[in-house]
Amino acid sequence: MATSFLSLITFSSIDNAARDKIIECFLSIKNMTQLLPVKKIIFLTLGLISISQSTGQNLAPAIAQNASLIPSEFTQKQSDLLLYGGPRTRSPLVQWYLEELAVSYQYISLDIRGQEQRQPEFLAINPMGKVPAMVDGTFKLWESGAILLYLTDKYGKEPQSIEERALLNQWVIFANATLGPGLFREDRREREMPRLLAPLNDIFKQQPFILGSELSVADVAVGSYLYYAKLGLSLDFSDYPAVETYLNRLSKRPAFIKTMGQR
Ligand SMILES: N[C@@H](CCC(=O)N[C@@H](CS)C(=O)NCC(=O)O)C(=O)O
């Protein structure tokens, strides 16, 4: 909870004096162990109003803008997992998988245009300054594919063998290293699209998901790139009808609608 709240303060556009006062206020309230959470909220609200008056700064916009950073105790959502993303980025694909796995998490949306991803606080999480990035307890991880595979290992159905796990790696790496560039890089698209989509079409003619009858992390990785390409680049997949059907199937899933579908 403290991490989330301090992130809220750190990423808010308020001045340092106000920020220090808020942190001081938050920490003193947090340490009042005898107080019920609801009373803590009341105290914190009163504290923020008084800081707002004493510093002459209106804190409401900063807090409203960062509503997603409100810590778990306040939202009654118990989760140590923080996912950092931003508008018009690929972070919804990780959200999609978190929703499929029913893992509780807090989503922190960075202002990418405002370069929040280049601020020291975020560079301490991902020194490359890119989203998505994840913090699970004290563990930090970035690169969407690595995050997906971590989530599968921690929360997904256990692979039966090294070979089964290797197939998940294969598809996640394929999505990021081959399919993504093949569809999104204009200089490659004409040559790569038929080479990549025809075999995918053959797979989906045989089975509903990449590895058979059930959705796996492979579908989240591959399906999201196909979806981004179709939606963002208006690519015509009509030569690959089984791929179209596959995308329709994915896009009807509640976890998809809640995340990718909101993009
Ligand atoms: N291969 C990385 C790509 C990460 C990436 O390029 N993220 C973009 C958003 S989709 C970003 O953070 N851009 C901001 C920047 O480069 O400053 C992954 O899959 O996570």
From TrEMBL:
Source organism: Acaryochloris marina (strain MBIC 11017)
Protein name: Glutathione S-transferase N-terminal domain protein
Pfam families, A to Z: GST_C_2, GST_N
Top-level taxon: Bacteria
UniProt keyword list: Transferase
All residue ranges annotated as the GST N-terminal domain in the record: 78-159
Database matches in InterPro entries: Glutathione-S-Trfase_C-like, Glutathione-S-Trfase_C_sf, Glutathione_S-Trfase, Glutathione_S-Trfase_N, Thioredoxin-like_sf
Domain GST C-terminal: start-end pairs: 161-263
Sequence similarity: Belongs to the GST superfamily.
Example of a GO MF term: transferase activity
